[in-house]
Amino acid sequence: MKLFNTLTRRKDEFVPxxxxxxxxxxxxxxxxxFAHIGNLRTFLFEDFLRRGLEFLGFDVTQVMNITDVxxxxxxxxxxxxxxxxxxxxxxxxxxxxxxxYTDAFMSDMQALxxxxxxxFPRATDHIAEMITQIQQIEANGLxxxxxxxxxxxxxxxxxYGKLAQLDKQALQAGARIEVDPNKKNPHDFVLWFxxxxxxxxxxxxxxxxxxxxxxxxxxxxxxxxxxxxKQFDIHCGGIDHIPVHHTNEIAxxxxxxxxxxxxxxxxxxxxxxxxxxxMAKSGDNFLTLQRLVEKGYHPLDYRYFCLQAHTRKELxxxxxxxxxAKNARRRLNDKVLALPDGGAIDASSLERFKxxxxxxxNMPEALAMVWKLLDDSTVPDADKRxxxxxxxxxxxxxxxxxxxxxxxxxxxxxxxQREQARADKNWALSDQLRSDIEKAGFSVKDTGDxxxxxxx
Length: 456
Ligand SMILES: [Zn+2]
Description:
Structural class: alpha/beta
Number of domains: 3
Radius of gyration: 25 Å
Low-confidence stretches: 173-177
Order of helices and strands: EEEHEHHHEEHEEHEHEEHHEHHHHHHEE
Distance between the termini: 41 Å
CATH superfamily of the largest domain: HUPs
CATH class of the largest domain: Alpha Beta
Helix content: 40-55%
Shape: globular
Bound molecules: zinc ion
CATH architecture of the largest domain: 3-Layer(aba) Sandwich
CATH topology of the largest domain: Rossmann fold
Strand order of the largest sheet: 4-3-9-10
């Protein structure tokens, strides 16, 4: 199998550390708000990867962290604490915010048919592991204390920034607008904040350096090593994590153990653009899965939408694109439903499918193969069905299942109002309500037995 490795910037032959087994770590959500569909694109990519590796016969252990402490609004130690920000916004405690958005995240994962990771460690449950790792880094002479905080001294690692291919000299020379005066080098970062930085922090723990809280990056190196060992196979995340978060994770892990490389393969998901622009932090362009559902899409329509582009390519989100994905998924499902049972898996189609997965997880091509197989007159229909259902173990589209459509209460209410309007012979209102129902993704038919509602 070949995978594109951000460390080497090329497709490399993938060799697991232990034959047949794979340790996979994915940076999880910071639970201070709903995940937006750009975040969800990354989690979908990681699910395709996990399923693809399992399909090819690997035994995968996947870990995804839940960040519930220490993440500031800037990834590089600046700005407000995200959890405190969420708590202030909603008038709740930080602990309530963490629980609420963790639950919301899990329900999004389930709706998108993303397999749950084997471990979902919460940062706040692993403070002791983080302190131990900071002590190891300290013992190796890579830290200093300044202004009450513990910093990682990046000048002590000669390969700092190798993932991002940062040129340290050039970056040091380049002026940054806001440089923390406590830092010796611009890229140094905080391992442990004491309350000298955020006096009213609700989440605080005792540490050898004083009462405070961990920097954001340390949780991922400490928790991944706890569950996957000191060195492991694959680490994933969004492409925006390359220059700071993942760069610092590597510095911490290799700084603590001295063993290199900490992780063999780094894989990154590209951005989702919204109408060619960046996702907004709030407002109409902050799109959540719930927003898509309210607009009449099934969560799996978004899964289908994301399958159409390679993970390493930007994907532009538009409503027209979502409509196309919705229609295509429904057509595909109808075609599979119409195929007879009782066939056998077509071996040559399956081999080609595996080859596509083994070539850097080419999901758009994997999806295209399903459509091609449907049109292939040399394969019996029943065999097509058996083969496509097998392929769907990776696509995760729940193909061939008759989906019971749940009609939202709001739509039922509109239908009731429309029946009343018809009884009142108010045809203008009745037409208006029909169009509202259609906008919500349903159609209404008038029969002798009353209104029949179907999904569009
Ligand atoms: Zn991380």
